[in-house]
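Data card: per-record layout.
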Amino acid sequence: MKTNVEKLLIIVVAAVVGSIGCQGPAPFDRSAMLSDIANNHVLPTLSQLEVNVQALEGATVAFINQPNAANLQQAQSNWKTTMETWSQVEQLYFGPGQEKFLYIQLDNTPTAPFFIERVIQDTTVIDSLSIQDRSSYTKGLGSIEYLLFEGNTGRTDLLQQYQTHTNAQRRKAYLLSTVQYTKGLIQTLYNGWRPAGGNFAQTLSEAIDDKMTSGLSRYTNAIIHMSQTMARKKIGKPLGKETKTIDPTLVESPYGAHTYAIIRNNLKGIEAVFGRLEDNRLGAILTDVTGSDAATKRILGELDALAQLLDQRTSTLQQDLINDPAAVEALYQATKSLHEQLKNELTMAFSITILANPDDGD
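The structure for this 362-residue chain is written out next.
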């Protein structure tokens, strides 16, 4: 016969076991998710961007020393690679990118050729310090594109501009100074994120509250804004959604004809932050919060549909605007649909505020 003490012990043990059995799954680890985005997307991409711009600088020096067709093509190729990598983190306008408006200085379009040419024709000193004080429309990746590519510039012989033209040396100086200034901006941006520098990656990973400055809010705003910019500015603007007139000169990359690749890499940046079903990214917390992967799958479907449309294009965006505007319209609608899906699903699930798009007003 059990004593009262034994009976009491049995009751206590049963209560403890029962409480353990009734425990639900562990709460979603937001910090681990934010760290995954930073460590497996942001930091590696910024590191690669630094490598790319250093290679661009080397190719630019080689071209300036020997301005021939082969060296020009190499510099152009390095610009394209740098631009593609940058486009994957272009959405990170917050944190280090917001300090001194680094993201705008790095890539603000449309470029202002008139003011670039006026400096080249002038007698003032051209170096990276003088470039620093200039408008963002006359420096950064967009201005490098203008200086390296002939398309849409009205120039009939770009090489001659660097070989025998009266202002050849000043053009070389402007090109190299702009590349070197851009390299400095990229290094500053990367340093702000990496552990050996400002370590914003760690700071953001620990920001797990419900404030507008939380990691979840910032990454969510970033991909929503990027999708909106892709639809409205990068595709919709040259398609005539604002002016009702198609204008191929308004594409993001009018000189190097690289707009489709830029947009595709913007999409890769969104894909990396949102993740696939098996990833621990924004899609994972969306599944956790909603208790189902239905919303996550809907967004993945939008991402895949747009990627497929972009991958099918074999011409440039300028050519498609003239010869196949229906295909560009399909891209616009798909990008717009992605933006609306991201905005509706994520803001509702995460209960976050969508801030003003930094591209508003461009």
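Known properties of this structure: The first helix runs from residue 4 to 22. Residues 50 and 181 are 13 Å apart (CA to CA).

See the next section for split statistics.
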